[in-house]
């Protein structure tokens, strides 16, 4: 079947398309070339403009006072959007940093900002290196063959971020399952149920857990990020229960799932580009460049939505007040006008102006932590790695928001 721009646009609203990398990138390339600001009217979805060029995504991110996160920060079905609106009116909707605009966004973001600044990262680095060694040793213990995505990659960053929050290790498995259900709501393997009510129940389970955590930290504060969130005050008042729980949710989920996706996807890229694996092993000083190339290559956050609060012209197209736009980060990170040979995995790529962490006021709070974790893991693995190959077919999560590999069977030899 011939690929048309209309068919390509519909792929942006199809979770299964994101799990088929060749099909998905073919659609994005066509949109960039022929219709970079493209109207998508997909069944069951409220229509939106698809923004696929790197510079256009940057322009919209810069104009955050015109293109707002609220009321539709993520792509969902029209039914799901309506259900979220109803929940918001009832005061029981998820309201994380990605749901907010200034001035709320600036004030709420500041609550956890100090925990992700360079000084805090330097203090955390020895612990991250220790954990990286633990999980490379885990690969050795697994006997030379494993599902790297499920048995290694999901656990290392999970342990880092939940330790930073101060959660007990006995709860890590529960947090992993809830995260997979939240981000994998469109995936047959991870979704809790098919209905929107069943999907929203995942959020309510998160809220119930974190409400108990908030009560405990307010009663007996400890030296962890959970206490900083629980005891934060805005204009002298504590955050309400749902804003507090929402803060925990974004840190506990996005703080590890995106990083694990990059670690898994990065390993697949190294296996499939053995010349780059050898190059990086011989030139470990390239590691910072390689980390950013893995992040660009995987782009675990697939999209954010913005809504125009006035008419705006982009590439000769008028985006009307009230129209939604979808910022396609995987497309921006393969833009031929920005990246030399964008479909080449290059561990020495420089410059690498990828958009995987967003841009401007909504730039990812945990970007430095994610880079540190990926660098620590591969700095531990690659000097010890003697051989590695695929031991089966990799599988990706069906999603329109956050995702990557859910299966990466590998066979290897590690010293």
UniProtKB/TrEMBL annotation:
Q: What keyword terms does UniProt attach to this protein?
A: Heme, Iron, Metal-binding, Monooxygenase, Oxidoreductase
The answer to keyword Ubl conjugation applying to this record is: no
Establish whether keyword Iron is in the entry: yes
Out of the domains of life, which is the source? Bacteria
InterPro entries associated with the record: Cyt_P450, Cyt_P450_B, Cyt_P450_CS, Cyt_P450_sf
Q: Which family does it belong to?
A: Belongs to the cytochrome P450 family.
What is the name of this protein? Answer: Cytochrome P450
Q: Which PROSITE patterns match?
A: CYTOCHROME_P450
The beginning of the lineage is:
Bacteria, Bacillati, Actinomycetota, Actinomycetes, Streptosporangiales
Supply the Pfam families for this chain: p450
């Amino acid at each position: 079947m011939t690929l048309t721009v209309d068919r390509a646009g519909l792929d942006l609203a199809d979770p299964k398309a994101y799990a088929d990398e060749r099909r998905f990138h073919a659609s994005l390339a066509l949109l960039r070339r022929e219709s970079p600001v493209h109207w998508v009217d997909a069944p069951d979805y409220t229509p939106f403009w698809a923004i696929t060029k790197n510079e256009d995504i940057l322009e919209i991110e810069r104009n955050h006072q015109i293109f707002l996160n609220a009321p539709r920060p993520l792509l969902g079905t029209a039914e799901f959007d309506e259900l979220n609106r109803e929940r918001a009116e009832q005061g029981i909707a998820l309201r994380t940093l990605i749901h907010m605009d200034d001035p709320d966004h600036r004030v709420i973001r500041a609550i956890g900002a100090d925990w992700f600044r360079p000084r805090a990262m330097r203090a955390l680095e020895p612990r991250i290196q220790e954990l990286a060694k633990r999980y490379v040793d885990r690969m050795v213990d697994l006997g030379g063959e494993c599902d790297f995505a499920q048995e290694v990659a999901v656990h290392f960053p999970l342990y880092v971020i939940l330790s930073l929050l101060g959660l007990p290790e006995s709860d890590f498995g529960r947090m992993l399952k809830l995260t997979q259900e939240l981000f994998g709501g469109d995936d047959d393997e991870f979704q809790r149920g098919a209905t929107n009510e069943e999907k929203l129940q995942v959020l309510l389970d998160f809220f119930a857990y974190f409400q108990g955590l908030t009560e405990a930290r307010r009663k007996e504060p400890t030296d962890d990020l959970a206490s900083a969130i629980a005891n934060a005050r805005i204009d002298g008042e504590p955050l309400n229960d749902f804003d507090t729980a929402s803060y925990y949710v974004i840190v506990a989920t996005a703080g590890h799932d995106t990083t694990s996706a990059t670690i898994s996807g990065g390993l697949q890229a190294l296996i499939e580009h053995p010349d780059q694996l050898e190059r990086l092993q011989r030139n470990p000083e390239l590691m910072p460049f390689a980390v950013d190339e893995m992040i660009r290559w995987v782009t675990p956050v697939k999209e954010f939505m913005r809504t125009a609060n006035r008419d705006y012209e982009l590439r000769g197209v008028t985006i009307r007040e009230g129209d939604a736009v979808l910022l396609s980060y995987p497309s921006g990170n393969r833009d031929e006008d920005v990246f030399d040979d964008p479909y080449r995995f290059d561990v020495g790529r420089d410059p690498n102006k990828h958009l995987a962490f967003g841009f401007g006021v909504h730039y990812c709070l945990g970007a430095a932590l994610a880079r540190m974790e990926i660098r620590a893991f591969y700095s531990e693995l690659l000097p010890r790695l003697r051989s590695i190959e695929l031991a089966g077919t990799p599988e990706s999560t069906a999603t329109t928001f956050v995702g990557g590999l859910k299966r990466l069977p590998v066979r290897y030899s590690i010293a």
